[in-house]
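Tokens in:
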């Protein structure tokens, strides 16, 4: 009975969250575009499926993944597991924490619905030039490295802005040398990783680390892992594109041909 009540409450909250989106879409379709909704029965059933699936997904996260992530973070950072011989904090004592952070970052990113959607659209728009699975794996590796490095920062107590500033300097440098067609996708990849699955587990890990390590503040040191999870996928995707560019130098030529074709089409439209 308790489970049914929780399912009902989660479904109710999901409906409240999703209804504004539906209202905006319907309003623009009927009032601005002034066209009937095509295949309205199919759209209606699809909307119901989204509500049910999203509700069960959120309930599953709350019942399984979130408690498991908090428990693992607490166990890996417990003093009896670390077995440190002194009261001082040594970053070498937390190697299992870094490994757990990397693996949880990789696995949650692979399962991230928003990343799956972007990857599939990228493959569709590029005509298969960008493989959805390859993009997901590259982004997941970026998140894994970012969260592991962010966990190291919490352990050693370094200020977060040093890492973020250095990371975005790398991003700016990469932007100058990366194939132009991949840059917008790389920047979007950094945003879609921090969504429903990744954020709660990563936040629980950061707060658990800061709460257990002596001298760390959960408020000051516990947060910030999400920034690493957003930054490093950008570096990873552009780095992968640059490696591919070295193996296939004709990528730049394709970019130039694309720009020339676009300029010609734009000029023809303006002439007309």
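Residues out:
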């Amino acid at each position: 009975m308790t489970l049914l009540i929780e399912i009902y409450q989660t479904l109710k909250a999901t409906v409240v969250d999703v209804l504004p989106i539906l209202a905006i879409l319907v309003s623009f379709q009927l009032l601005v575009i002034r066209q009937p909704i095509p295949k309205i029965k199919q759209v209606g059933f699809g909307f119901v499926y989204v509500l049910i699936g999203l509700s069960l997904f959120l309930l599953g996260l709350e019942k399984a993944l979130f408690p498991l992530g908090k428990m693992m973070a607490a166990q890996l950072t417990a003093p009896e597991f670390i077995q440190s011989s002194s009261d001082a904090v040594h970053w070498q004592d937390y190697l299992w924490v870094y490994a757990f952070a990397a693996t949880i970052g990789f696995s949650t990113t692979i399962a991230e619905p928003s990343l799956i959607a972007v990857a599939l659209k990228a493959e569709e728009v590029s005509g298969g030039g960008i493989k959805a699975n390859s993009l997901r794996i590259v982004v997941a590796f970026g998140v894994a490295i970012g969260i592991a490095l962010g966990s190291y920062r919490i352990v050693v107590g370094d200020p977060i802005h040093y890492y973020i500033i250095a990371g975005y300097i790398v991003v700016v440098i990469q932007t100058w040398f990366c194939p132009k067609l991949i840059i917008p996708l790389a920047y979007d990849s950094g945003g879609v990783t921090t969504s429903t699955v990744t954020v709660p587990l990563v936040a629980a890990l950061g707060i658990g680390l800061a709460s257990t390590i002596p001298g760390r503040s959960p408020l000051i040191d516990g947060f910030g892992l999400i920034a690493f999870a957003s930054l490093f996928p950008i570096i990873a995707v552009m780095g992968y594109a640059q490696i591919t560019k070295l193996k296939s130098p004709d990528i730049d030529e394709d970019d130039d041909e694309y720009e020339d074709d676009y300029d010609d089409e734009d000029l023809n439209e303006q002439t007309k």
